[in-house]
Design goal:
With 497 residues, the protein is of the alpha/beta class. The chain has 20 helices and 13 strands. Strand 11 and strand 12 form a beta hairpin.
């Protein structure tokens, strides 16, 4: 079965054998006449991409080729991989030039793992909303109004005390001495927060136990070394804003079979939350100067846990030039509201083999050229597409995905070694562990006047450079074509000047 699009809609500019850097490759078109390379223009990808399809049909190959194109062109990208194979394949094939701008989140990295503190952003209220939304959607069966109130105030308190992390939540809620130190510092000048902690302290043990079911699950996550290393550090080891704006590449390898379902969902959701914080920071930049970036989420239903309606988020993301590529196996994985938002706002559709039920639903969005029979009878590595071209919908067509480039011997080892510059050493992680045991000591590092609450102590807001202990001397973040807006000749703030 093959269908072609009318005209050249969906095909990349240039000849049948070349493709512009401003296009993400998808595959080769099928049907009568000359087969052409088909791609999605970066500007049209801002309308987001929906990639449904059964497992083993070619979704990972498609996503990997798109990520490789972004990396080669110097566009920022964040990749969430809940199986682990896609990141492994990418590390074998990425260009060597990515070495200076690669952040790797991987449970197999034990010496210098990356760290992500969702609470160290400039807006503590946003951070608290994001964490509560993630917790509510992951552990909704144990959620209630009191749980929501307690977790929101706990997160807001920690976001206002420099160096605090999600790993401090259990101690804050269960240890009076810790609570007195942290809540006292965070609630100065905030009568609501101060009143909440007075109310909480007056609760009997049975009242404070309302948070018990969620705390027990959070503890279970934090007892895993990977989660403690990633989420328990006092400061993030990389700047997500620089990843998006300066052509960085963040690969989050989150194999559920290795780290557990809750840990994978929590880590992936917080990576997306941090990326969204960074995207919102682009509001102060004129739209024409916002560089394009992309967020790739395989099994996306596990990670789309931001507060607010996804419909609004997708609309805002387009304005901030952050394109979302959302892949999953079948429509039943998406809650009804999420499915409706994706159907309406992820306007680029790339469908691999679908079940008859899903094909019937998707045919309404892919027709009239493609039918439900077409969608349920696609071959291996064959996809049915309906894309945006120049801001307008095009007719549907089919294509074959391109094979991945050959792996480069030794490339993965080179990139893994380079990514360690954006990690935390054993000594730094040990210091964080000791700090959590004696949380009162962090209060000596109060936020100086004029520095936004939640900013990392001693670090200018918006600049989280690589820790000096792990940064090799004379290794600035390299200039990336099409990425940073920094003036020529000035060092990039990812590295030391």
């Amino acid at each position: 079965m093959a269908r072609t699009a009318a005209g050249t809609a969906g095909t990349g500019p240039g000849t049948a054998g070349t493709m512009s850097e401003a296009v993400r490759p998808l595959g080769r078109t099928e049907g009568a006449g000359r087969r052409r390379l088909a791609g999605l223009a970066v500007a049209d990808a801002r309308y987001h991409v929906h990639v449904p399809g059964a497992t083993g049909t070619g979704k990972t190959t498609l996503l990997s080729n798109m990520v490789l194109a972004d990396a080669a062109a110097g566009r920022g990208a964040v990749v969430l991989d809940p199986k682990g194979d896609m990141v492994t394949d990418l590390l074998d094939r990425l260009p060597a030039a990515v070495a200076g701008r690669l952040v790797l989140i991987d449970p197999s990295e034990r010496d210098t793992p990356a760290a992500l503190n969702i609470l160290d952003g400039p807006d503590p209220e946003l951070a608290a909303d994001q964490v509560v939304s993630v917790f509510r959607r992951i552990w909704g069966a144990w959620w209630g109004p009191r749980m929501d109130d307690i977790l929101r105030c706990a997160c807001l308190t920690l976001a206002r005390v420099p160096g605090s992390t999600l790993a401090d939540i259990p101690a804050l809620l269960t240890e009076p001495a810790v609570r007195a130190a942290l809540a006292g510092a965070a609630s100065e000048g905030d009568p609501y927060l101060r009143g909440f902690w007075r109310w909480y302290d007056a609760l009997p043990e049975s009242g404070q136990a309302a948070a018990g079911p969620v705390l027990s699950r959070l503890r279970a996550v934090l007892t895993r070394r990977f989660a403690a290393d990633l989420l328990g550090s006092a400061r993030s080891s990389f700047d997500m804003r620089k990843v998006l704006d300066s052509g960085g590449l963040l690969l989050a390898r989150l194999p559920k079979g290795q780290i557990g379902d809750d840990t994978a969902r929590l880590a992936g959701s917080l990576v997306i939350a941090k990326a969204w914080q960074a995207a919102l920071g682009r509001a102060s930049v004129p739209e024409g100067r916002r560089p394009d970036a992309a967020l790739y989420a395989d099994e996306c239903h596990n990670f789309l846990n931001l507060p607010g309606a996804l419909e609004s988020i997708l609309d805002e993301a387009r304005g901030y030039r952050l394109s979302l590529v959302l892949a999953h196996q079948h429509l039943g994985q998406l809650p009804r509201e999420l499915a409706a938002s994706v159907a309406a706002n992820a306007r680029n559709k790339v469908c691999f083999t679908l079940s008859p039920d899903d094909a019937r639903v998707m045919a309404r969005q892919m027709g009239p050229v493609l039918t439900e029979t077409d969608l349920s009878h696609l071959g291996l590595y064959q996809a049915a597409c309906r894309l945006i071209a120049g801001g307008a919908d095009t007719a549907g067509f089919t294509l074959r995905t391109l094979p991945l480039p050959r792996p480069v011997p030794g490339r993965a080892d080179l990139l893994r070694d380079a990514a360690r510059r954006f990690g935390r050493t054993r000594e730094q992680r040990r210091a964080d562990e000791l700090r959590r045991r004696h949380p009162g000591g962090r209060l000596a590092r109060r936020v100086p006047p004029g520095v936004p609450a939640g900013a990392s102590a001693g670090v200018p807001p918006g600049v989280l450079e690589t820790p000096a202990e792990t940064q090799p001397p004379g290794m600035p973040f390299p200039h990336v074509r099409g990425g940073s807006d920094r003036p020529a000749g000035k060092p990039d703030s990812w590295g030391q000047s």
